[in-house]
Specification:
alpha+beta; five-stranded mixed β-sheet; two-stranded antiparallel sheet; 2 helices
Length: about 140
């Protein structure tokens, strides 16, 4: 299994490709300690983006509003959701990039990629909502 740094780079690369394909200009910070991974802009619209790479667990991917640097509890902190407007999640098993407004994330957000075994639809977050969202693809 590649390192988390390599997986993160794969997630960022897929996000860059996605945004460029939809007409966005993409900038990346010079320093690795930046609070965001990408800055995208198209006309007057500008967003700071945090990119993730996630595997599927029982048909669900989860994004948490926290970042871990190093080891130990004192190295964990939350993303500043006033500065990060968009999260992307690349899910390699499905070869899909989810684009999520940070306003949808409180502590965490679970997104269902497959139907639940019990058929529950209410109170679930379907991946379809975050694949090629109109507000990004227009």
């Amino acid at each position: 299994m590649p390192s988390t740094e390599v997986l993160g780079t794969i997630g960022e690369t897929r996000a860059v490709e996605f945004f460029l394909r939809h007409g966005w200009l993409v900038d990346a910070p010079v320093l690795s300690g930046s609070p965001y991974d990408l800055h995208i802009h198209k006309g007057d619209r500008k967003f700071f983006v945090q990119c993730k790479y996630r595997t599927v667990n029982r048909g669900v991917v989860e994004i948490k509003n926290k970042r871990i640097r190093g080891k130990g509890k004192d190295k964990t902190f939350q993303y500043d959701l006033d500065k990060i407007q968009v999260f992307t999640i690349f899910v390699p098993v499905k070869d899909v990039l989810l684009v999520i407004p940070s306003s949808r994330i409180k502590c965490s957000l679970r997104i269902r990629l497959t139907k639940s075994k019990n058929g529950q639809v209410e109170l679930t977050n379907s991946a379809d909502e975050f694949i090629n969202p109109k507000w990004i693809c227009e």
